[in-house]
Fold:
Amino acid sequence: MLPPFRSSPVGHAARGFFVLLCLSTTALPAVSAEAVAAPTAPAVEQSLSRLLAAPQIQQLMKAVEADHARTLVDLKALTEIPAPPFKEKARAEAFLARARALGLDAHMDAEGNVVGVRKGTGSGPRLLVSAHLDTVFPEGTDVTVRVRDGRWYGPGISDNARGLAVLLSWIKVLADARLQTVGDIMFVANVGEEELGDLRGMKAVFREHRDIDGMVGLEPDPSGAITTAGVGSHRHEVTVKGPGGHSYVTFGLPSATQGLGRAITRISDVRTPSDPKTTFTVGTMSGGTAVNAIAAEARMAIDIRSEDNAALAVAEREILAAIDAGVADENRRWNATSLGYTTRLIGDRPAGRTPAGSPVVQAALRANTAFGRAVPRLMANSSDANVPMSLGIPAVILSNGGESGGWHSPGEWWKPDGAWKDAQIGLTTILALVGVEGLGEPLLDKRPR
Ligand SMILES: [Zn+2]
Structure:
């Protein structure tokens, strides 16, 4: 049933304590400084009221709910096509075939993203609407979907096959209703969100399409939250190399493992600000070949994060200096110069933020309360939205609907109860942003071309 339009937020037992981890090592989403949502602007209020009161849109929302059962078929099919990082092609092809069958003029781009533009009247803004194809699960993972006690189990089912199924549902109901939007909706099922994919899919989209004015992405975010800040990260792989030798016979040579240890000790002493929250960790380390050998090689991987690009750069500089000094310490200790190191950037996600007053955030907030939800919290996370945010293009991540848990683990599950509600909220947000002919102008501004 279509919920009545409400003019004031009502309470909602938000299951908002779930934490979405979009990277296996993603920081807990910090509640942003703008956690208290800005009041809704009058234009947003007016636009949403008008849209949701229109019989055409009420029909559309009913269609979203009615399509729920069909989305489960898509969900199962997509979840059961493996999509490890850099190996998303089979799932992309399946999505492309479904999107075309549902009436979207879509294609696969050079990076492997599926892109299809649903055209507006020609004068409006262009909104990117996306969900990622990839999962964290390596090849060979059993991705069979199993239903037990009302829960659907399957690796990647919630993160983010569910998002893909919602995109397909939106494509279908919009086509069935022949709804004419003012702005364009660019549907994208993208590659490279997880892990070392390093947002390559989204980076390619924004490199190739300079005419995108805003973004609404889907993730298994809790229903009571909207992601409006993108935590940036840089990751380095560090390899320390030395001569190596026998522990007794060649004693006196510098050691790669000991040099690495000295570097880690110095890194551990680096101080980072709590505001903007800036963090680091030596996530992994390894090295040496035998207990009775001076190690010739040792490695570590470091993750550095911040909500602010400048703070990220400062922390990174200090950590790289700590490595340099640690390796120099080891050489000095043995009067040597033979220990060296290399660093390689293996992850680069820019930070960014969409202001709470931005129409993209405002529309999402109001759409939530219009459907009876409490005013959502604004969250920081690391996701595809980092890319537009870092470019100053307004972007939010919304909930793909349904309760879920165990993300990035083989026990990942999703519960379909009432999941269509978030699909309604998301679609309402999108329509308010791009505008509907005869029902309202777009809330999303066109950026200067
Ligand atoms: Zn995700």
About this structure: Residues 85 and 197 are 6 Å apart (CA to CA).
